[in-house]
Amino acid sequence: MTRFALMNARVIDGLSPSPLAGTSVLVEDGRIAAVGNGGAFGDDVVRIDATGKTVLPGLIDAHIHLAQWGQNLLENRARTVPYLVARTVASMRQVLNAGCTGVRDCGGLDAGLRDAVAEGLIDGPRIATSVTIISPTDGLIDPVTAQGISSPTLASIPSPVADGPDAVRAKVREVIRAGADFVKIATSGGVSSPRVHPRRQLFSPAEVLAAVDEAHTAGVRVACHAIGGPGLQMAIEAGVDSVEHGALLDDRCIEAMAARSTWLVPTLAVYRWHETLGDESRRTRAAEISEPHRAGLRKAREAGVPIAMGSDAGGYGLDFSLELELLVEAGFTPMEALQTGTLGSARCVGWADETGSLQPGKAADLLVVDGDPSSDITVIRSPDNIEAVFRNGNLVAGSAASRYEVGR
């Protein structure tokens, strides 16, 4: 049995309102065994001095895209599939190095890559994948170009298009057969969809109800891309489990989400990237919704809508932890942002019994950080400050990983 302890650290457990000073974390066989006084851990424990460091749960990005190419091969026609897979593996390693020990991939990631991580064949965070995004003809992810050419998807990823309640129900079954951990649908346009305005409704109420009913019958959650307008309200009323983006929330939507405990994943970071790095159309649309987005997030939070951290990273690189800084900019304290990005995201994804907080019995997914992110959220954004990353108690990354090796 492997037993080690991170000793005398500043511990952010994901639950307490403030850090626990001079606290130790005991790990046994990949699980957290105790959090508290290290002197009570016994003599057969490998003790690793973490004085002056912060130990916290691994971060969980509840909305990321590690392999968007999987659902649009035409845009990547200059690259072979093995090359694109290798690039995805490198992306997994990159987010792991930055302290992300869990992700919910919201479109494009083949379930086989998730399984390869789970089996230890490749390094990466724990993964939940939607495989693709279901939307109608002329919807958010319709693969047909203006020239009438339909982009193929990776063979293991179903076509994203479905029209009519029966076809939507069948598509949900197909996506689950392909290995999806949850189903993602799109009920409005987006900032990055030039043909479809962010407020335009996609799908009919009957189609959305069919998607939600079929997914819930199969025991999987439904995440819904929705910016605002009738498509957003329709999705909430249909019972989706999370709203992705929600950049144009109104009072009626907020009230309904609070009543149903519908999760909001605001993805502030992607709109910052659209506004600063996007083409003219994206910059214009993102600038228009920027302030309403922050205002809606604040009102949703005050109303009791549960919030998870998701960056929508992928299209502009993988700087997922910018989302934490933008949550603070929107009015969260650093501690609240960290709790949103750990236990909040774990609850949204459905992992709260396994990870997201430092509690006995949970997986030892944790970070050792040089600095105090509970007082300065920016310290967590530099990989140099992520000294050690543990997944299931195994040391998998970190700028000072050699200091935290057990048995050295």
What does this structure look like?
By secondary structure, this protein is of the alpha/beta class. Helices cover 31% and strands 21% of the residues. The chain folds into two domains: 3-57 and 357-404, Roll (Urease, subunit C, domain 1); 59-349, Alpha-Beta Barrel (TIM Barrel). Strand 11, helix 6 and strand 12 (263-265) form a beta-alpha-beta unit. Helix 7 (268-277) packs antiparallel against helix 8.
Topology:
Blueprint lengths: L2 E9 L8 E9 L2 E6 L9 E4 L3 E5 L1 E6 L16 H17 L2 E6 L5 H8 L7 E4 L35 H13 L4 E5 L18 H13 L3 E8 L1 H9 L3 E7 L2 H10 L2 E3 L2 H10 L2 H24 L18 H8 L4 H16 L16 E5 L15 E6 L2 E4 L11
Helix pairs in contact: 3-4, 5-6, 6-8, 7-8, 9-10
* Number of H- or I-type helical stretches: 10
CATH architecture of the largest domain: Alpha-Beta Barrel
Largest sheet: 8 strands, mixed
Rounded Rg: 21 Å
CATH superfamily of the largest domain: Metal-dependent hydrolases
> How many structural domains does the protein architecture include?
2
